Amino acid sequence: MVENRRLTRRAMAFVLAGGRGSRLKELTDRRVKPAVYFGGKTRIIDFALSNAMNSGIRKIAIATQYKAHSLIRHCQRGWNFFRAERNEFLDILPASQRMSEDHWYRGTADAVAQNIDIVDSYDVDYVVILAGDHIYKMDYEIMLREHVETGADVTVGCLTVPRREASAFGVMAVDEAGRITSFLEKPADPPGMPGDADHALASMGIYVFSWPFLRDLLVRDAQDPESSHDFGNDLIPAIVAGGKAMAHRFDTSCVRDEGAPAYWKDVGTVDAFWQANIALTDFVPELNLWDRDWPIWTYSESVPPAKFIHDEKDRRGVAISSMVSGGCIISGTEIRNSLLFTEVHTNSYAVLDHAVVLPYVTVHRNARLRNVVIDRGVVIPDGLVVGEDPAEDAQWFRVTERGVTLITQDMLDRRAAP
């Protein structure tokens, strides 16, 4: 265990947080996907950052690009406790044409390549490349240990998924020792795992390298005019073909309750985002946010406790099988199987059922909202009914294939316009 901790002290985490996440539609009109809210009080990026910190990594860089203000502000407020005098760092690295005036970050590998001098200054032996837009809990120490013990050029974090579902991922074909023999991007016929033809290994977008090896690779890739400068498209396939690439199975490093399944979610669509948040209201959710041994750190606003008022027939402030965050005022509203973020205020005779309500939303009287995602700061007008007539809802709001309705203030303003 001592050596594990020493490995994390010799490592840094480089978090890729520049992608928009366009499948989340209007939820990423004003913020990048890693800055999207999740779980009542956190942001998506908090999971990768918390995993790094809980694993013992104290040197972290975050590469940003698309509409990064919300993400940068969140990190400045919630992740400002690193102390340089203790050899701890959290650097935010916006795309700033540091190597050329002709381009910003051209791909995931280029985002690291443009900051080689900054990574050099960290004086680390290993770099853990992380995607900043997934929900999971993972001990990176275990993956680092495996990387060193196998002598790999790169170790790729892999999910075990049903083979019939693996076509949506980059898929690893591996031998009995776990060495990657081929990397296939969204294959029509994914290869099965050794000894388990019904499952496949899908890339998590998590990579461990020794820094000297990765540095040389990035320099060569930056000079290749045919490269798209992307880890998944260029660097990893090249190592598979000419080096030693090993697969690390997430099952072995996932942080979870005893007997619970390995939890990893890409909340990259409105349906997936809604489902993952609503699932937190289950009696025993698969994702344990109450785990004090592996906390998910975030920016916590100073707000009063949630408040429930009125106790009359049809006008009772009540929440059943729901999560209600600090600062909420539930005034005569019936709430079921819903998740309310900070400072949501609801009014009398309203009903929320399977609703994901982002911060600072106001729900006025007599509104009935079912199977909805409501963006930050929205004001729901008196008597609005959503979730009962899909055809009517689709005229004004975004309705998904699964029947979830996304509501933003711009949509409501267009609906109210003469």
UniProtKB/TrEMBL annotation:
Any GO BP annotation: glycogen biosynthetic process
Pathway field: Glycan biosynthesis; glycogen biosynthesis
Catalytic activity as recorded in UniProt: alpha-D-glucose 1-phosphate + ATP + H(+) = ADP-alpha-D-glucose + diphosphate
Signal peptide: none
NCBIfam families in alphabetical order: glgC (TIGR02091), PRK00725.1 (NF001947), PRK00844.1 (NF002023)
Summary of subunit composition and partner proteins: Homotetramer.
Protein name, per record: Glucose-1-phosphate adenylyltransferase
Native species: Paracoccus siganidrum
